[in-house]
Task: structure prediction
Amino acid sequence: MPQAFYETLAKIAYQKNLHRRIAGTVRRLAEELKVPEIGGLNIADVSTLIEDLIDVHLHNIQERERFQESRNRALFLPHCARKYMDSRCQARFDAEIPSYYCARCSPDCLINKAVTLGQNKGYDVYILPGGTCIPQILERNPYDGVVGIACSQELKQAKEFLKNKDLPAQAVFLTKNGCAETKFSLQTLEEIL
Result:
């Protein structure tokens, strides 16, 4: 089947909210696969995480065409993915923007690599302490497309805000959550960008 068929199917499923309707099946599948024992999460958390992953993926498919038509784009990175969260990180925070500015002090830092990738592709890059900074940045800058990397909670908040602004967005899920030492896939980010 052509890729367009699957994209159309995903868009319809997303519009009908089908991914939310399968929560019971997801819980049963998680129990059968012993995901709570393996991952250390309870069934409700596993179910929510899987629903959120599906939601982000379907949203990316739904918004991809509109996003690709955009030209003036921003990339929002989570500050918690910096290699160091102490004085070893030389990033400078500007409260006016609000964003950190990478000083490129660690070549192996995930944020350093993502900043380079985003800038090389023509994005304005922001390293945010949280999703609440996004409205302030978007008020000052007329972006017509954004990419964000975050945990599911931050992505949900940003999605609602961006939906109200009718701004096409793409999202990259963190592969390791937390408030420090978080991770994401550079390969996934490059594909999205």
User: Anything to note?
Assistant: The beta strands are 73-78, 92-94, 99-101, 124-128, 145-150, 169-173. The radius of gyration is 17 Å. The chain has nine helices and six strands. Residues 43-69 form the longest helix (27 residues).
